[in-house]
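Ligand: flavin-adenine dinucleotide. Inputs:
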Amino acid sequence: MEEIARGWMSVSGIINTHFIVAYMLKQHGTQEQKEHFLPRMAAGETRGAFSMSEPALGSDVSAITSKAVRDGDEYVLNGQKMWLTNGGTSSLVAVLVRSDEGHPEGTAPHKSMTTFLVEKEPGFGEVRPGLTIPGKIDKMGYKGVDTTELIMDGLRIPANRVLGGETGRGFYQMMDGVEVGRVNVAARGCGVAQRAFELGVSYAQQRHTFGKAIAQHQAIQFKLAEMATKVEAAHAMMVNAARKRTPGSETTSKQGWRSTSPPNTARRSSRTPSVSTVDTGSRRSTRSSASTARRRCCSSAKVPPRSRK
Ligand SMILES: Cc1cc2nc3c(=O)[nH]c(=O)nc-3n(C[C@H](O)[C@H](O)[C@H](O)COP(=O)(O)OP(=O)(O)OC[C@H]3O[C@@H](n4cnc5c(N)ncnc54)[C@H](O)[C@@H]3O)c2cc1C
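Predicted complex:
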């Protein structure tokens, strides 16, 4: 995710959302649901989206008002959803709704929610009877991803499309998926930050003022060194969170933040941002502390030793 975001943030958004849905299916789906959806999702034939947010709420998921009512072997869904990543391009949407069946009044809100696996045609308009995707929401940025509303008006879903086959588990399932997605979002932030840093270094080496590249001005060196430190620190924190969220990873929960080098340290070290990387193409450096970054910034710009003071 980090590397993809370094190249194109929107693509990592498309994949992250798809991954969240696949993860929810893998962790919580029935055997039949896994066999039906996962191979097609892995092959890229089915793209996933998930839908918990509504026009009046995002963080406060427990306040959702969309509802499912049982009718024989089916459920009838009504309500308006908001901010679906992959909303138009997906053919499978994991939709979180309130389902009071079997959960008497007074049940904690998060225990009266169910996730439905809703299949639909990709595209906009009425993509299935009772289900409308009105169109793309116009955003300020992040435009490579389609973000949409979703309107359910008497949408009929068979009972075997309740995720995990049991109502009342939806909040837990959705939070589990979104939590993995949050680590992915952090990885995307790291990728974007790394690219910004690389571009910053590159520019500082090209742009000249007062007869030398601005990378040779001490104030700019300090800024670049601080950026390098922050990019590296953010990466370390993200990897630590990813390890904690890896199913079955015991070391992480027991050792926490002070745990030893993450498993992908070797891979990471081949692409750790260093000021020299941009200039020379060399990817050997694994250090990007403030002093290292500042020193490399100077040396790559071939500053005579005296002026480095
Ligand atoms: C581009 C984009 C794509 C999205 N994709 C999806 C998707 O695929 N599926 C989906 O279901 N949703 C999606 N969302 C919705 C997203 O999950 C919500 O926007 C998010 O949960 C925040 O909710 P909100 O926008 O209602 O903001 P609010 O919850 O109203 O938050 C507004 C502000 O209040 C703060 N705040 C909220 N609650 C508290 C609190 N208890 N304590 C302190 N501060 C608080 C927040 O930090 C924030 O600064 C997407 C949103 C965007 C912008």
